[in-house]
Amino acid sequence: MTIASAPDQALVLAAIEQVWGSMLFATADPWPTERPAEFETGLQAQIELRGEWNGRLVLTCDAGVANQIANAMLGLGPEDELDEPDVHDAVGEVLNVVGGSVKGALPGTSALGLPGVSEVTEVPSRDESFVVSWGDAPVYVQIVPDAA
Amino acid sequence: MRALVVDDSRAMRRIVGRILGDAGFEVLEAADGQEALDLLAGPGDVPELACVDWNMPVMDGLTFITEVRRHPEWRAITLMMVTTESESDQIVRALAAGAHEYLIKPFTGEAMLEKLDLLGLLPTSTGV
Amino acid sequence: MTISPQAFTFVRELVRAESAIVLEPGKEYLVESRLVPLAREAGHPDVDAYVADLSTRRSQAALMKVVEALTTNETSWFRDSDPYTTLRKEVLPLLAKTRPNRELRVWAAACSSGQEPYSIVMTALDTPELAGWKTDVIATDLSEEMLERGRRGEYSQLEVNRGMPATTLVRHFERSGLNWRINQSIKDRVQFRQLNLTRPFPPMGKFDVVFLRNVLIYFDLPTKQDILRRVRQVMAPDGHLFLGAAEMTMGVDDAWERVPAGRSSVYRIREEQRTCVPW
């Protein structure tokens, strides 16, 4: 693996695969470009990186998917109902671990912020993100550099 | 044996707590370094082990570890960083501040048990 | 969803019967994390339901899948830790007294993706009696794919978490993207070669230490006997053999004697057998 000076899609995808596999017991695959990836209301987690590269990673998924991710992380059944704070916390922590892996792969030592999670009603633009699978559902990932 | 899990993520506290619980520890939890220091200063036995996240609000894990090492009455606590911070420099900083071991997230339960074994903290281990 | 004591006991008995590997209490998390993917694949909501179904259906194929999930892929650094402590504190210092040329040769006979031979080199570097010595490790495996991984010497975050002290990681590895790469000076001490243990060994010279860990369990008795006999032929007379925790030479090849060391044991060729080994 070569050392990139900014996080690219391959690096973030590799970090997500590792986290899905080890913390969630699931596989993450790239979502086919031609396949629709719509949902109504979702959860968005963000985390900041500060160092040679400055920006944030953003993860957006359907509310039901967020619940499933939280359940998988806690070793519960996929349909178990969790409190909203628990779901937010789990999805935030998943992104935190992805962010830390990505940060460690960048040159120098960068700083990682604390994850923030909020509800969103809009699906991100596919032009500005890449999509990975959670089972049969899409998860949007954005690498957003600070505005110059 | 008692273990203190310090992490701002409830989900992570539950996961680490469960692994430690299965390994025979009585588990205490704190959501940041300051809460953990208050807990240590309170009544009750000093835990044998503390698993500490790095990035937390109020007081981060590195500061917590530095504080713990300043108190002679807490010398017996084995400190293990459990964090997503994964640069060599960060690991060296944590060890220099007094951490005994360092487990990088993501980790599997087996990896955590092997670290506890290295530290001589499993019922079956005698330490290295 | 913590695995129930009944399910854990069932799995433990199954694994012990099939592999001689004992899952101590405290390994519940291991059992569960290894079986969750199998339970999901079989359409069960959790591990308990999966195990309950296994215990009623008793399908041999399904049972073996469980055994496999719990016994393979054990690629930790300093695996079981005890053999490496014994190596550093007892075996290497002893050998250091009797090797005036200050050279040691070690064979890692089922090296998989390289964690074992590299752990041996790092242990030798931590042995004060070997300061300034040349320790070379020949690492062999049946799988070319595994050997290639070993030669590359690059390991994922998850892999370096397994059994490696943090001080060792920062001392001997550097980051390479998401992975960690072992230092060249360690890599240079290990030579990876393909080898099938069940066939006659190629010329390899004599070894002072042989690691033949967790591989004999996969062979039947005559094959075990044959392998242990041929290992004797490539050992220095005062060499030391390390086996897996669930393995022993007793009743297999009695030309070896067991020497208790730490919590485990090492094996040496019996004194009376050392002179009559057919070279």
UniProtKB/TrEMBL annotation, chain A:
<feature type="domain" description="Chemotaxis phosphatase CheX-like">
    <location>
        <begin position="45"/>
        <end position="123"/>
    </location>
</feature>
<protein>
    <submittedName>
        <fullName>Chemotaxis protein CheX</fullName>
    </submittedName>
</protein>
<dbReference type="InterPro" id="IPR028051">
    <property type="entry name" value="CheX-like_dom"/>
</dbReference>
<keyword id="KW-0145">Chemotaxis</keyword>
<dbReference type="InterPro" id="IPR028976">
    <property type="entry name" value="CheC-like_sf"/>
</dbReference>
<dbReference type="Pfam" id="PF13690">
    <property type="entry name" value="CheX"/>
</dbReference>
Automatic annotation (TrEMBL), chain B:
<dbReference type="InterPro" id="IPR050595">
    <property type="entry name" value="Bact_response_regulator"/>
</dbReference>
<dbReference type="InterPro" id="IPR001789">
    <property type="entry name" value="Sig_transdc_resp-reg_receiver"/>
</dbReference>
<feature type="modified residue" description="4-aspartylphosphate">
    <location>
        <position position="53"/>
    </location>
</feature>
<dbReference type="InterPro" id="IPR011006">
    <property type="entry name" value="CheY-like_superfamily"/>
</dbReference>
<feature type="domain" description="Response regulatory">
    <location>
        <begin position="2"/>
        <end position="120"/>
    </location>
</feature>
<protein>
    <submittedName>
        <fullName>Response regulator</fullName>
    </submittedName>
</protein>
<keyword id="KW-0597">Phosphoprotein</keyword>
<dbReference type="Pfam" id="PF00072">
    <property type="entry name" value="Response_reg"/>
</dbReference>
UniProtKB/TrEMBL annotation, chain C:
<feature type="domain" description="CheR-type methyltransferase">
    <location>
        <begin position="1"/>
        <end position="272"/>
    </location>
</feature>
<dbReference type="InterPro" id="IPR000780">
    <property type="entry name" value="CheR_MeTrfase"/>
</dbReference>
<dbReference type="InterPro" id="IPR022642">
    <property type="entry name" value="CheR_C"/>
</dbReference>
<dbReference type="Pfam" id="PF03705">
    <property type="entry name" value="CheR_N"/>
</dbReference>
<keyword id="KW-0949">S-adenosyl-L-methionine</keyword>
<dbReference type="InterPro" id="IPR050903">
    <property type="entry name" value="Bact_Chemotaxis_MeTrfase"/>
</dbReference>
<keyword id="KW-0489">Methyltransferase</keyword>
<dbReference type="Pfam" id="PF01739">
    <property type="entry name" value="CheR"/>
</dbReference>
<keyword id="KW-0808">Transferase</keyword>
<dbReference type="InterPro" id="IPR036804">
    <property type="entry name" value="CheR_N_sf"/>
</dbReference>
<protein>
    <recommendedName>
        <fullName>protein-glutamate O-methyltransferase</fullName>
        <ecNumber>2.1.1.80</ecNumber>
    </recommendedName>
</protein>
<dbReference type="InterPro" id="IPR022641">
    <property type="entry name" value="CheR_N"/>
</dbReference>
<dbReference type="InterPro" id="IPR029063">
    <property type="entry name" value="SAM-dependent_MTases_sf"/>
</dbReference>
